[in-house]
Amino acid sequence: MLKDLSQTLIGCRVKAAREAGELTQDQLAQQLGLNDRQSVSDLENGKRALKPTELLTLAELFNRDIEYFLDPLAVTGEAHFSWRAAHEVSPASLNGFEQEAGQLIGLLRWLRAQQKSPTSALKPTLRLSAHSSYELAQDSAESLVDELELGVIPAINLIDHIERKLDIPVLFIDINVSDMDGDVSGATCHLDQMSAILINRQESDARRVFDLAHELFHALTWDAMKPAHRESNSIEPRGKRKRTEQLADNFAAALLMPKKSLDKLLNRDRLKDSDYLRDVAGQLQVAPMTLAWRLFNLKMIDEATRTTLSQHKQPSNQLTLPKPYSPTFVHMLHEALVNGRISARKASKVMRKGLDQMLKLFAEYDLPAPFDL
Amino acid sequence: MPKLRVFVDTNIILAAWDAHCWPAISNYYELETVEKCVEETLTHNPNDPRHIKMPAGDLYSGIRQRHNVTKLDIANLILNGHCGATLDDDEQQLLAWLYCHEVLPSNVIRIATADKAAIMVANQLGWLDAVTSLEELATQAGVAKTNLNQLKSQYSKSWLTSARTQIRLGVLK
């Protein structure tokens, strides 16, 4: 077993390259000059070490850089993204950003693998399918609020609980696509070893929280309902939105505004008072429009109130910029640099930051400079 | 007496240039490096506010030998040497060349790097004593102490001594 790059990971990449190249194990054995397909099977399962000359043969055969097989931070072909982006964002911009995000995810996966505490062998999933009703998606969210003990205002500790109890990392990132007419809200990224949620930290508090809950749905249902590579983040009529996205929206709404919380927070005598309801939305850390739809769907307010409440703006004091990435991620990276497990320049390139910017990031988290170069 | 051969990485080259001790150390030692370090030195991130611009002529004239590193060299370091996968390309290729050409350990060869991960890899390969600091190189080459005051701490002799001790004691892991 290599210390910083596992034989298993190399084996997975050999298998992925072979399958993409549409070769059988027998055929690859022939190409590598091996006795039989069992040797290839052992290679792919990480039971047999890959030899340097075999690596070069593979790279040439499958037209790949050797980094594809050897870089522990690479996730090419392994990471699958589902983005929430505005229509205006061009596919080229999104793909360009996906390359950057992929490197970050690769670093995250590697940092997690370096931790002493083993990753859970189990993967949490919701008991839902594409055929589930919207009501069932909402019920699942309400149950999850109880199971995770999210409390009356689920938004407050949602990230912490998602990371600790569901083992799904959440990263706040600056999403700078070149065509800034539109924005990218975030993404769910799925790999065999983990799922991760990326959130655009430049968005408003309420939108970030809703994105987080929405992406959580995708992370918890990826196998049963693999989302499209790209979905719209704008408000669209129900009929235009894909069913999986509608299920995710229903789930997110119930997760952030469970009936129990609404019962505790709402004065039933003031359900026509949109100013009052706007304040309740602020308490729940959701946008007035989000609360408006939730209450309307629960038949707690009428159409006129829904329309008025939807037109309220989010109070300006609810626009705070969270620290970049996450405390867990930044601490893991700091530890890796302090211990010399990754070179400062390599980390700096993956993060697309200069060395000074890296030091500023650690200072933001009150961490001492891990290098002085 | 032949000059000491010193293999320098990108950080060392740029810091030496920035501290005005490049001419002194390139005269005093046989400086060698790999092509990737040359490339990184000359194309070092221009968006970085600390970007140091070193004229190519000064770089080329100070380096006695620039080595080409093959894909097989890199594969050998990572797959047979079992290390180096998380180094930056320039440091990785420098150590890959040294690994594949089996020139270390040697009394007349040193590796100059200030990157902790590269020093960890040097240790894994049994070359910890071959690692040297820019401060040591410059002092030996006769550079005045005052010229070295502006060096960042990781280029100092004391930082390297401390890192070596931590590695030997297993503090870094």
Fold and architecture overview:
The complex is a heterodimer of chains A (373) and B (173). Chain A has 373 residues and is of the alpha/beta class. In chain A, strand 3 and strand 4 (195-200) form a beta hairpin. The mean pLDDT of chain A is 91. In chain A, strands 2-4-3-1-5 form a 5-stranded mixed sheet, with helices on both faces. Chain A folds into 3 domains: 7-70, Orthogonal Bundle (434 Repressor (Amino-terminal Domain)), CATH 1.10.260.40; 80-256, Arc Repressor Mutant, subunit A, CATH 1.10.10.2910; 327-364, no CATH class. Chain A contains 17 helices and 5 strands. By secondary structure, chain B is an alpha/beta fold. Chain B has a single domain (5-168), classed as 5'-nuclease (Rossmann fold, 3-Layer(aba) Sandwich), CATH 3.40.50. Chain B contains 10 helices and 5 strands, in the order E-H-H-E-H-H-E-H-H-E-H-E-H-H-H. A 5-stranded parallel sheet of chain B has the order 3-2-1-4-5. In chain B, strand 4, helix 7 (116-124) and strand 5 (131-132) form a beta-alpha-beta unit. In chain B, helix 1 (10-18) packs across helix 3, helix 3 runs antiparallel to helix 6 (89-100) and helix 5 (71-80) crosses helix 6. The radius of gyration of chain B is 15 Å and the shape is globular. Classes of the chains: A alpha/beta (373), B alpha/beta (173). The A-B interface holds A 2-5, 49-53, 55-56, 59, 66, 70-73, 110, 337-346, 349, 354-356, 371-373 and B 10-11, 15, 45, 47-50, 71-72, 74-76, 78-80, 82-83, 85-88, 90-91, 114-120, 124, 152-155, 159, 163, 167, 172-173.
